[in-house]
């Protein structure tokens, strides 16, 4: 009597996975572009001083970072006095800077040793005695290319 029969034995078609590789590669590309690589974990407070004559460095020269400042809120186990941090390691004595410089020189190779730059990222409230000791250690290993990291601003205004 009826023209149309409902076939009871039909199954649902399989889900097509042809576009799955496209989706996976889009997600991979998105996360590669959106991810920021962390340089170092700071154990110290690092509010950089401001300067009005700032030059940006080119990324072509190898740079080693020396941080100085009071230990941060989560790192009071290091004390309350200003400390030196080399990459991800707090140092107890500034003489360890000489070993740090030698390791970086070995890492960059002989052709780049002359271009190796020591960038000092020093908290604005750190006393100059510690900075003088750091510079003295750098001088002893003949690391004479030194840069002070700052933020652009008016240095006469207190923050």
* Number of strand segments: 7
State the helical fraction.
Answer: 25-40%
Radius of gyration: 28 Å
Mean pLDDT comes to: 87
Strand content: 15-25%
Low-confidence parts lasting 5 or more residues at pLDDT below 50? none
Q: Structural class, from secondary structure content?
A: alpha/beta
Short overview:
26% of the residues lie in helices and 17% in strands.
Describe the structure.
It is a single chain. The chain is α/β, with parallel strands linked by helices and 159 residues long. It has three helices and seven strands. The protein has helices at 20-34, 96-108, 128-140, and strands at residues 50-51, 63-69, 83-86, 89-91, 117-122, 146-148, 151-152. The longest helix has 15 residues, at 20-34. The radius of gyration is 28 Å and the shape is elongated. The mean pLDDT is 87.
Structural topology:
Layout: H1 20-34, E1 50-51, E2 63-69, E3 83-86, E4 89-91, H2 96-108, E5 117-122, H3 128-140, E6 146-148, E7 151-152
Parallel strand pairs: 1-7, 2-5, 5-6
Antiparallel strand pairs: 2-3, 3-4
Structure keywords:
alpha/beta, 17% strand, 3 helices, 159 residues, two-stranded parallel ribbon, single chain
């Amino acid at each position: 009597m009826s023209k149309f029969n409902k076939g009871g034995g039909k199954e649902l078609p399989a889900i097509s996975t042809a576009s799955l590789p496209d989706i996976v590669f889009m997600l991979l590309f998105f996360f590669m572009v959106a991810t920021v690589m962390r340089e170092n974990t700071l154990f110290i407070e690092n509010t950089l001083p401001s300067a009005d004559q700032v030059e940006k460095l080119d990324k072509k020269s190898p740079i080693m970072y020396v941080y100085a400042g009071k230990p941060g809120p989560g790192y009071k186990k290091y004390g309350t006095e200003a400390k030196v941090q080399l990459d991800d390691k707090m140092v107890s004595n500034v003489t360890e800077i000489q070993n740090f410089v030698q390791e970086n020189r070995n890492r960059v190779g002989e052709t780049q040793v002359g271009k190796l730059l020591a960038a000092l990222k020093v908290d604005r409230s750190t006393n100059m005695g510690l900075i003088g000791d750091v510079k003295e250690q750098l001088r002893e290993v003949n690391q004479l290319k030194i840069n002070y990291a700052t933020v652009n601003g008016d240095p006469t205004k207190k923050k």
